[in-house]
Amino acid sequence: MAKKSTDTSSTPSESAAAILTGMQSAGMGSLAWLGTTWIERMSDVTAEWLDFVTDRIKEDVATQHQILHCKDVAELQKIQIAFFQRAVEQYQAETGKLVEMSSKLFEGTEDGVEITPPKRHSTPV
Q1: Cα 80 from chain centroid?
Q2: C-alpha–C-alpha distance, residues 112 and 115, integer Å
Q3: DSSP label at 32?
Q4: pLDDT for residue 2
Q5: Which residue has the higher pLDDT, 23 or 115?
Q6: Pick from 87, 98, 89, 93: which is nearest to 50 by CA?
Q7: If you ran DSSP here, which 8-state letter would residue 117 be given?
Q8: Which listed residue, of 26, 33, 106, 109, carries a Cα 20 to 30 Å from 42's Cα?
């Protein structure tokens, strides 16, 4: 049985550096070519997703509140139908936003320099 590491002395920045080093040694190469523009855009995508999830949780809570206070089965069905219709519409709209944002992740930077990954040899060196 493997022992669990109990060393918690590393800082978050050391942990992040270790993850990037591991990715580089696994064959991803240097990630410096991504640049700050990619990081900012990725941050925007993440923020958009988290905002969406937060809004959906609020919708879930509101729907649960309505369900707890409904008086009959017909009212319950209306609440559930409205919930699912809103959910489908919101998920479709959010998917469109995320696809558009993701498609722009690797477009050029603000100064017009194209972001391209480093060239790799076709045969091992």
Answers
A1: 28
A2: 9
A3: G
A4: 53
A5: 23
A6: 98
A7: P
A8: 26
